[in-house]
Amino acid sequence: MTTRAVIYGLLIVFAIVYLMPLVVMVMTSLKPLQEITGGNMFYLPHDLTFEPWKKAWGTACVGLTCAGIKGYVWNSVRMVIPAVLISSLLGALNGYVLTKWRFPGHKLVFGMMLFACFIPFQSVLIPMATILGKLGGIGQTLIDATGYSFGFGDPTVNLVLVHVVYGLGFTTLFFRNYYETFPTELVKAAQIDGAGFFQIFRRILLPNSAPIFIVTVIYQFTNIWNDFLFGSTFAAGDSSPMTVALYNIVNTSTGVIEYNVNMAAAIIAAAPTLVVYVLAGRYFVRGLMAGAVKG
Question: What is the pTM of this model?
Fold first, then answer.
């Protein structure tokens, strides 16, 4: 009984410590600026207001543009959705090949992809910038020839490409471990029945991959949405993702630091990842454990 009380007590203390910054952010975002500068940040709002949220969304200054963060949220959405879907599907395909269609040297290939997971973000900036510069040159050539760039050189497309390449090692690792536990007999039976490579993948592997897909989507969505380094390096101005806009809005000073607007913008930036975890978080550990034990 005493042990249980100690455990619950520690959990409550840790929960308070972790939740306190979020509570302060929410309360600060709902206060007028005068109440923030003249009071205690732990006090509940006396004059509740949603004006900071409206300003952060629609009229706050991000650099030299005072149009709020709504456009940058859309930039992040346009970047995150294709990057997560493409990297997850390619990771599933890689995991399928590395476990069910093994070839000479498959362990070396997997080891090299695993090694890529541990390469620091900073060390790939210059190679990535070189490749994206060449793609931008191709885009300019296409514009001269046809009038359209077909996405080459577009900052959002560049960020999608960067995140797909950098995330592919992780998604391959997740799916490879998960498919190791998948019965190979089912794949061989499908081959005997005449099913081909993609037919087996589409009709047998994918329908049974929901747990690991949820894990991969949560992991990739959180990493890509919260990324700042790639966003600040390969995008600029109105094409920047949400995290870069948040940095700019906090550092854009017009004489008075609007803490309530900054907090509202920070909560809006963090909301999508919180929603994803609330809706699918319970499947996260379940999906990880599904591929953890081979039986």
Answer: 0.87
